[in-house]
């Protein structure tokens, strides 16, 4: 059981090191690559994941490495688990589920979209479906996000990653989970 996890999406793989022991102060981390919704790294999810696995192999205590960003097929899930991931983080596929709080209009825009429609915006390199970027917003662009989630992507945005390429209909969460775990051994 892991008590502490940290979301990391920077080029510094894990900055939270105890300088006395040179061991991490967290039990693991989520590593968001460039394929992720919202803020991600300039490195791919796979590159971040493998770099952190190599780093954490040098530590004396176990460290959970959880990849996030662009994971949207059973093959990707299986790949990361086979490579040593404790779990994977999936987001975009769940944005367009029946149970999601995202409006039906925005879910339909996600279904019509693909990764070519995604834009990096803001000073923080956020990624999503957006029609315009208003400089000077706070880091999460909360006002714009609320408008986009409510269904007006002409005035707002929604964070979506490259998993958008695998969304072609609105499904219940249980069906998405079943799809992602079909090939797990």
Give a verbal description of the structure:
Helices cover 28% and strands 16% of the residues. The chain contains 6 helices and 9 strands. Strands 5, 7, 8 and 9 form a 4-stranded antiparallel sheet that branches. A 3-stranded parallel sheet has the order 1-4-6, with helices on one face. A two-stranded antiparallel sheet has the order 2-3. A hairpin with a 4-residue loop joins strand 7 and strand 8 (126-130). The chain is globular. Residues 9-13 have low confidence and may be disordered.
What gross morphology would you assign?
globular
Mean of the pLDDT scores?
85
What is the rounded distance between the termini?
22 Å
Structural class: alpha/beta
Computed over alpha carbons, the radius of gyration is: 17 Å
Beta-strand residue percentage:
15-25%
Number of helices: 6
SSE order, as H and E? EEEEEHEHHHEEHEH
Instruction: Give the number of DSSP strands.
Output: 9
Salient structural properties:
alpha/beta; 4-stranded antiparallel sheet; 16% strand; globular; single chain; 185 residues; 3-stranded parallel sheet; 9 strands
Summarize the structure.
Helix content is 28%, strand content 16%. The chain contains six helices and nine strands; from the N terminus they run E-E-E-E-E-H-E-H-H-H-E-E-H-E-H.
């Amino acid at each position: 059981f892991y008590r502490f996890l940290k979301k990391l999406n920077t080029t510094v793989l894990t900055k939270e090191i105890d300088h006395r022991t040179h061991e991490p102060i967290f039990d693991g981390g989520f590593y968001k690559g460039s394929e992720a919704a919202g803020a991600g790294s300039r490195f791919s999810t796979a590159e971040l994941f493998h770099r952190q696995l190599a780093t954490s192999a040098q530590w004396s205590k176990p460290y959970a490495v959880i990849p996030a960003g662009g994971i949207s097929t059973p093959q990707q899930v299986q790949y990361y688990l086979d490579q040593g991931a404790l779990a994977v983080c999936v987001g975009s596929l769940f944005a367009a589920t029946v149970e999601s709080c995202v409006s039906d209009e925005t879910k339909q825009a996600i279904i019509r979209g693909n990764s070519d429609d995604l834009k990096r915006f803001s000073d923080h390199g956020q990624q999503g479906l957006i029609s315009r970027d208003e400089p000077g917003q706070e880091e999460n662009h909360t006002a714009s996000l609320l408008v986009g989630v409510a269904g007006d992507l002409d005035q707002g945005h929604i964070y979506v990653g490259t998993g958008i390429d695998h969304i072609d209909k609105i499904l219940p969460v249980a069906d998405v989970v079943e799809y992602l775990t079909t090939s797990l051994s």
